[in-house]
Design goal:
2 helices, alpha+beta
């Protein structure tokens, strides 16, 4: 698909971007999540500096991404171990 030009507002700043059409919705949703997180931090903490709020938001989402990555790796390893065990059982069964 082709590229389109969009404008994304994050922390009251507009960022013009060129994105693939199929990525537009995801990028807009990501910007909304960031702005919602900033608003939450603004309301719950005595932080008003946009840079601090952005940093806190980035830390939140980076931490979530790393946790998700770790979970996927753990689940992949677990599945691989189970497949290996099943393979061993089948191999042993057919050797008899």
């Amino acid at each position: 698909m082709g590229e389109i030009s969009i404008k994304i507002n994050i922390a009251d700043r507009v960022y013009p971007l060129k994105v693939n059409m199929e990525e537009e919705e995801i990028i807009r949703r990501a910007a909304k999540l960031i702005n919602d997180r900033i608003k939450e931090y603004q309301e719950n903490y005595a932080v008003r500096d946009k840079q601090d709020l952005l940093s806190m938001s980035v830390l939140h989402y980076a931490t979530a991404a790393l946790k998700a990555e770790k979970k996927v790796i753990h689940e992949d390893t677990s599945v691989a171990e189970k497949v290996y065990q099943l393979d061993q059982l089948l191999t042993d069964f057919f050797k008899k």
